[in-house]
Amino acid sequence: MIASERKLYIMNCLNKKGIINLKEIAKELAISEITVRRDFEKLEKEGKLRRVQGGAALEEVLEDAELTMNERISINMDEKRKVAKYAADLVNDGDCVFVDAGTSMVPLAEHLMNKRIRLVTCNELVLRKMTNPAAEVIVVGGKFLPYYSMTVGPLAQDVLKQFHFSYSFIGCTGIDAQQGVVYTTETESMLMKRIALENTDECVLLMDDSKLQMRGFLKFAEIADFSTVVCNGAPPEGEMPENIVFV
After folding, report:
1. Is this structure's pTM higher than 0.85?
2. What is the pLDDT of residues 164-218, one digit of tens each?
3. Which of 96, 100, 163, 229 falls between 20 and 30 A from 139, CA-CA?
4. Phi and psi at residue 169, in whole multiples of 5°?
5. Distance (Å, whole) CA 188 – CA 152
6. Which of 91, 127, 105 has its CA nearest to residue 189?
7. What range does the domain containing 52 cover?
8. pLDDT in tens, 75-115
9. Among candidate residues 104, 106, 119, 110, the one with its CA nearest the CA of residue 206
10. Distance between CA 228 and CA 183 in Å, rounded?
11. Both 173 and 51 in a single domain?
């Protein structure tokens, strides 16, 4: 395949997905990763994409992804509240639960604060909602990421590994229901999610319907890794995994 054909293929993939992975493109085209990297560099110089760690993205996709948590908190809030109510009803007094970072967890925390549970979180947005909670709240310390309003890093990971949870509530950037993959965008938060997944009886993925069939940059889990995936709205056309619940 000549250079112009490769560039056209790359741009077609970007227009479909928004973000693409360098290794996957190299495999699909049966060429070296170095060749793909050079194509990315040339396309970036032409202003057609922006290179990111391990791949490339359309400029407008990155602009959307780079909204701060404070800016995102009001987006799709009605949908997030429906999902949160369903998820909170799964929890019983006496449970120990993990609440992930992200704005989808804010309405969930509002419900959980009224339960007599132990709530462990790395999410600074959750702490803002605390007003004389019935729950015992444990904050995972570590390096604070202001952009994501969360704590991460080796210290946070070590602390999180000490707990065993009845439920872990996890957020995501999006899912690919056909491939069964769950995505996120940030490496350090991905590691926190994976620890929670490994140390829980039931792991619940929360998302609003804007994240259906929305690919992200990092694959951090399979849909099948979750006991339940909770999403608002009606099921879309096409076959969906059995563990997705629409509320």
Report:
1. no
2. 999 999 999 889 988 899 998 788 899 999 999 999 999 999 998 888 877 766 8
3. 229
4. -105, 120
5. 6
6. 105
7. 3-65
8. 678 899 999 999 999 999 999 999 999 889 999 999 999 99
9. 104
10. 16
11. no
Check whether 157 has a pLDDT greater than 60: yes
β-pairing, 50-52 with 96-99?
Answer: unpaired
Residues 6+ away with beta carbon under 8 Å from 82: 232, 247
What does the alpha-carbon distance between residue 61 and residue 145 come to, in Å, rounded to a whole number? Answer: 21
State the pairing for strand pair 228-231/218-222. unpaired
Determine the pLDDT at residue 59. 62
Which of 50, 65, 80 corresponds to the end of one domain? 65
Under 8 Å between Cβ of 186 and 171: no
One domain, residues 144 and 226: yes
Judge if 47 and 100 occupy the same domain: no
> Would you put residue 142 in left (φ > 0), alpha (ψ -120 to 50) or beta?
left
Token couple for 101: 């970072």
Number of neighbours of residue 23 by Cβ within 10 angstroms: 12
Helix (H) or strand (E) holding 170: strand 165-170
Task: Return the C-alpha torsion angle 42, 43, 44, 48, nearest 10.
Answer: 160
Helix axes 77-88, 105-112, angle to 10 degrees: 40
